[in-house]
Specification:
151 residues, globular, 8 helices, 3% strand
């Protein structure tokens, strides 16, 4: 087997497994992080509390955090079903806006110095990879079929 043949085989293998592995990866991250929030085990709790205090008020923290937890679990599960891609991508983008907002709204918790994120800031910035993965899945979505005209 020559190098070109091996290269083509590896590319075919990666293409075959990209979509299922991307869906599984997003499911794992979203469902796992959601479950941690649901059982109050998430290390993101203090960051979420600070964001809640800054936006809707700390009195709403527990309810908002649990809603976010369920929302994350639902997004994760939806990514396992290819037919739900058109529905879950907008839900993911809404989620990304919410969870990335601490970078601007509570910067003292997200940044040590300009362009030097805290651990919490790094936790938020990793969402860039998730968005890229989701865009890759959306790019592989089959176009909607126009309904055939009835005579």
């Amino acid at each position: 087997m020559n190098l070109r043949t091996l290269d083509l085989q590896l590319i075919a293998l990666v293409r075959r497994w990209y979509i299922p592995l991307a869906r599984l990866a997003i499911f794992i991250v979203y469902f796992w992080f959601g479950i941690l929030k649901l059982f109050n085990l998430s290390p993101a709790g203090p960051l979420a509390a600070a964001l809640t205090a800054k936006t809707i008020g700390l009195a709403h923290y527990s309810l908002a955090f649990h809603i976010l937890a369920v929302y994350e679990c639902v997004i994760g599960v939806m990514f396992l079903f290819p037919k739900l891609t058109r529905v879950v991508i907008p839900l993911l983008l809404i989620h990304i806006v919410i969870v990335c907002s601490p970078l601007l709204l509570v910067p003292h918790l997200a940044w040590q110095h300009p362009f030097v994120p805290t651990l919490e800031g790094q936790y938020i910035i990793k969402n860039v990879a998730i968005v890229a993965l989701a865009i890759g899945l959306a790019a592989h979505t089959m176009p909607l079929q126009a309904k055939a005209k009835r005579r």
